[in-house]
Specification:
The protein is mainly β and 302 residues long. The chain has a single domain, classed as Autotransporter beta-domain (Lipocalin, Beta Barrel). 2% of the residues lie in helices and 60% in strands. It has 1 helix and 17 strands. A hairpin with a 2-residue loop joins β11 and β12 (225-238). 39% of the residues are buried. The model is unreliable at 2-26 (pLDDT under 50).
Length: 302
């Protein structure tokens, strides 16, 4: 697919590396989901995986099957009663099978740091005696260009090369908000985020990304052990990519997904996993399909 011209450039979105030769779908994506139970600090490892399949509309002999994995060291710190800081250090692994052959890429990704502020909190009981807990958080963050981005802007295969890099070479910014509602053992966590992607030194910029997510969970506690099954919906919308401030055709798109997961907490240890499956999507003018994505983590709170 490297013979595809620069007109067929990609789309890159926003939760860990997840790209394809023309759609991109992911440099600098950072998925948070349900945070582990912690009072002060936590440190953990996460593994994320996504699989894409691309077939060119004008020439179906040009295809790409793309597998993108990320291992992340991540941590969180509560500062006082109002502030929370999160940091993510990713290592990316990219495996592509296409009509051009098999390629592999791995390396340090782009580090992200986020800070959240508890804007509002209310605890109490309803008229029927149900325990109610509500919180609203707002915050933002920055993504640093610590991953590798080494391309030739004049190369006609710029798009496919850019999508197989472990970083974007740009300093990007994130803003987010979260509302958490708990009624007895039930919880609903709803979050909104927006990532603003800047142009890098090669004047290449990946499209901004908006993400909306809502997760329903149920808490089952037995002694020091807590099991929390959860079910959620997520919408991601990516704007078109740009080269030297010019919009690149057939880039951007959206994915609407459902997710099912489980979290298990025992004292200071939390283990969790989820699987996300698209319900509706349109990536790169329907030339790229997200098959599935999943995540697993092991976290220690202290």
């Amino acid at each position: 697919m490297k013979k595809i011209t620069i007109i067929l450039l990609l789309s890159i979105s926003f939760t860990t590396v997840q790209a394809c030769e023309i759609c991109g779908c992911g440099l600098g994506n950072y998925y948070v989901g349900l945070l582990p139970q912690f009072k002060h600090n936590f440190l953990g490892l996460r593994y994320q995986h996504r699989q894409f399949h691309t077939v060119m509309a004008e020439n179906t002999s040009q295809y790409s099957k793309d597998y993108f994995s990320t291992v992340e060291l991540w941590g969180g710190w509560n500062i006082g009663k109002k502030w929370q800081v999160l940091a993510i250090l990713p290592v990316n692994f990219i495996h592509q099978v296409s009509d051009d052959g098999v390629t592999n890429q791995k390396g340090l990704g782009d580090i992200a740091v986020m800070a959240n502020y508890k804007l509002w909190e209310k605890n109490g009981s309803s008229a029927k005696g149900k325990q109610l807990q509500q919180q609203i958080w707002i915050g933002g963050g920055i993504k640093l260009p610590t991953g590798q981005f080494n391309v030739d802007a004049a190369d006609p295969a710029l798009v496919s090369i850019a999508n197989t890099q472990t970083g974007s070479a740009s300093v990007d910014y994130m803003i987010n908000g979260m509302y958490d509602l708990r009624i007895n053992k039930w919880g609903i966590n709803t979050s909104l985020s927006y990532k603003l992607n800047a142009a890098n030194k090669d004047k290449y910029s990946f499209g901004d990304k908006f993400t909306a997510q809502s997760i329903l969970s149920y808490k089952i506690q037995k002694g020091n052990s807590i099991i929390m099954p959860n079910l959620g919906l997520q919408l991601e919308h990516s704007s078109a990519n740009q080269l030297d401030k010019q919009i690149i055709a057939a880039t951007g798109g959206h994915v609407f997904s459902t997710a099912i997961g489980i979290e298990w907490n025992y004292k200071k240890i939390t283990i969790g996993a989820n699987l996300q499956k698209p319900l509706a999507q349109n990536l790169s003018d329907k030339q790229t399909t997200l098959n599935y994505r999943g995540m697993a983590h092991l976290t220690y709170s202290f």
